[in-house]
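Quick one:
INPUT:
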């Protein structure tokens, strides 16, 4: 194998796209700051037990492991920054009341999440800690929608789901509990034949449990209508009634257009969410652009259980679905060390202009710049002149 080939599902980012990703990062972090979110920057690697705050979740399977040469302990390369933000809130900041944190950094997955997914993501996100009310969920969802709008995404659609309902149905039948992970995957894929086969996989399960799970796979679409059908067709368990009440209150408070719900979607997160979960979809992307939701109690492993809600997205995925970035206008300047030339270069660059000095006797190949002006010496003064077509 050639030594320049990259591992599977890893890729270089070339100049034009890299510039746009960096611009998106700046736009979004500036946006989060206007909402009062404070920037944190956790390390890329931590001890494994710290990264895997919630055991038995998909996050554990996606974490790359290595041995720390100093301590001999197992470390992990983060696959998600959200647990790190929860650790900072619970263990380092240790504040009373509400804390808003945002972040942006690279995460690495041991395996790609999907057929068209990368293993290296540039994750950006925002989290609210310390407030259990629906108002925090509303703010996070509105900020997630504002994020994709700021990036220029058109016709974004908000999709809400409530894993608590699936959890309640499974926990109500003890024969299904050992197979919860498999059932969640079946529900997310709306795999009716697979759900029917649970009768042989878990022979002690009740027939009505299978029917309720099948019903759940058809509960998607318009928010209020789907909730009404869910109340009619699902069992009146207190957990389900409470979850539907909370979801209905959230929908009533949101003014988002193109809102749908999917009560069978159980696999959209790493498995640590405890309340309403949401995704943002848009034409041009094969999968959700943004994922988020409520994950109360994740900070308990760090010594302090706190209500929490937030979202994250991959800037590389976001950039990849946008129209090609436009090339930036630039000025061509001759090579030289003349004091007046250097002063003019500094003046133009301080004004925000892109000025490229042409190295002697060397052609320049540029992808992201269009040179439409040049710096010329005229009557003893350096002047910017348009380059004719």
């Amino acid at each position: 194998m050639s030594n320049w080939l990259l591992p599977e599902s890893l890729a270089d980012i070339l100049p034009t796209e890299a510039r746009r990703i960096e611009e998106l990062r700046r736009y979004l972090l500036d946006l989060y700051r206007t909402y009062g979110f404070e920037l944190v920057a956790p390390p890329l690697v931590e001890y494994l037990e710290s990264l895997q705050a919630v055991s038995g979740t998909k996050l554990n399977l996606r974490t790359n492991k290595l041995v720390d040469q100093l301590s001999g302990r197992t470390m992990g390369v983060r696959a998600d920054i959200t647990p790190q933000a929860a650790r900072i809130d619970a263990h380092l900041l240790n504040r009373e009341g509400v804390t808003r944190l945002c972040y942006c950094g690279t995460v690495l997955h041991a395996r790609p999440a999907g057929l068209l997914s990368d293993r290296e993501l540039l994750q950006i996100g925002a989290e609210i800690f310390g407030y259990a009310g629906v108002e925090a969920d509303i703010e996070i969802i509105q900020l997630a929608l504002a994020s994709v709008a700021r990036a220029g995404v058109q016709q974004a659609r908000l999709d809400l789901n409530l894993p608590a309902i699936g959890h309640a149905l499974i926990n109500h039948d003890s024969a299904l509990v050992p197979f919860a992970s498999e059932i969640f995957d079946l529900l997310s894929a709306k795999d009716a034949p697979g759900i029917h086969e649970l009768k042989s996989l878990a022979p002690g399960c009740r027939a009505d449990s299978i029917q309720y799970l099948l019903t759940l796979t058809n509960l998607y679409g318009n928010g209020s209508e789907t909730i009404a059908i869910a109340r009619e067709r699902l069992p009146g368990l207190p957990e389900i009634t409470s979850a539907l009440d909370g979801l209905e209150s959230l929908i009533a408070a949101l003014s988002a257009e193109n809102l749908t719900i999917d009560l069978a979607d159980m696999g959209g997160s790493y498995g640590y969410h405890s309340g309403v979960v949401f995704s943002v979809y848009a034409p041009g992307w094969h999968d959700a652009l943004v994922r988020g939701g409520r994950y109360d109690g994740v900070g308990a492993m760090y010594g302090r259980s706190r209500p929490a809600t937030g979202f994250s997205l991959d800037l590389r995925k976001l950039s990849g679905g946008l129209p090609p970035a436009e090339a930036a206008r630039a000025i061509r300047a001759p090579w030289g060390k003349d004091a007046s030339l250097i002063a003019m270069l500094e003046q133009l660059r301080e004004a925000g202009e892109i000025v490229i000095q042409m190295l002697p006797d060397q052609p320049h190949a540029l992808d992201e710049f269009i040179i439409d002006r040049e710096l010329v010496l005229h009557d003893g003064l350096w002047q910017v002149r348009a380059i004719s077509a």
